Each structure stands twice: as C-alpha cells, then as structure tokens.
Fold this sequence. Notes:
By secondary structure, the chain is of the alpha/beta class. The protein is built from 12 helices and 8 strands. It is globular. The protein starts with a strand and ends with a helix. The model has no long low-confidence stretch (mean pLDDT about 95). Bound molecules: erythose-4-phosphate. Erythose-4-phosphate binds near residues 109, 133 and 165.
Amino acid sequence: MELYVDSANIEHIRHAASLGIISGVTTNPSLLAKEDPSVDPKTRILEIHKLVGGHLSVEVNSTDTEGMLREADEILSWFPEATIKIPMIPAGLAAVSKLASQEIPTNVTLVFSPTQAIAAANAGATYVSVFMGRLDDISVNSVDVLDEICEIWEVQGYESLIIAASIRHPIHIVEAAKSGADIATVPYKVLIQSLSHPQTDAGLKQFLSDYEKMNVEMKKAIVI
Ligand code: E4P
C-alpha cells in the first residue's frame, strides 16, 4: 500500500517527502485554508508539486459540472500532471466522466458507501477516496465499509485505485492495508506517529549508552 501525505503545509510535506516513504500528496479546501492566507492557492500548489514529483490531488470548489470542468482546466494550466479532486455528487460524476474521456486523472472525494464507490468507478474515476475517520465519527464502522468496497473491487475487477482517506490514527493505516486499499493518505502528525515505537526508542537509547561505554580503540574498530 502506498502512502500519501494529506496536507497543504510546506514544511510538513518537505519533511515527509525527505523520508522517502510517500509517493503523493492530497489537499482539500480545508487543508489549504489552514495555511498562511498571504500565499495564494496556486503558488502553494505549485510549491508542493515541486517538492513531491508524484501524485498531487487538487480539489475543485464548484458544485456544477461546468464550473468543475472550468476549474479543472485552470488547475491543469498550472501543471498538467494534476489529479483533479471532485466531490461525490451527481454533477461531480458527470465531470469525472468527461475528464476520463480526455484521460485526465480524477480523484472522487467524500465517498462513504459501496454504492457511491461503484458509481465513481463506473464514471471512470482514477482514484476513489473512502473517508474512514468521518464514518467512525457517525458510529459507522469504517473498516467494514472499506472491506466491502475492496471485496467488490476484487469481484468486479474495477481499475480505479482505492484511497483510504480521513485517516485519524495509525490503526486506520493498518486497517486500510489489511482491507486492500491501494493508498492511504495520512495527515503529517499521524504519519510521524506511525513511525515510532517505545521499544525502538528504548533499544536505541541502550545501544547509544553502551556505545559510549566502549573505549576509543573499540569504537575505532567498529568504524573500520
Ligand atoms: C483526503 O483526500 C481528504 O480530503 C481528507 O483525508 C479528509 O480528512 P478529514 O476527514 O480528517 O478532514
């Protein structure tokens, strides 16, 4: 399962990219709104694109098909490799279908059910983003929904890639991988959390303190 970082923060994206573990970035209007308002979204998106050469989803803000397609054109004029993120509404499906016919990659966002995922796949979505955290928020088990969608993908052979989104904690990453999601898009804080383990920290502390106890000759021998 690939990992994307779900962020519009340049420093977080820079650090995540430097670790060599992410292959893309997803943004949304709420993530962009959290950042410095003096930097316009186009400048920010292009800076992110420079940092991470891989996938970058940029969301449209219109709710009608024509408006979405106009925004898609605008985003693609910024950089032609953009993936256009489109909400899971009927007008969005029409936009996805039109963009798919032009071989423009799309990411259908705000997917919460198997029927929505099936519709997005049939419209020709390149990616289908299933929101885990927001399902759990309303007491719907997100793992059950993701499992069901992944099972349907197996049976039907849909080609759209499944992104586990709205990830709130490391267990969501594990569950997404077990379900068979192709990608998990993870907030920076959760990504960093997911890398640590108290036994790693304790083990490293012990190794470093034992290394310090060695005499100079022993240390030289290790380096050689
Ligand atoms: C990603 O594509 C989504 O926009 C994002 O994961 C939503 O996460 P949230 O539910 O924590 O806002």
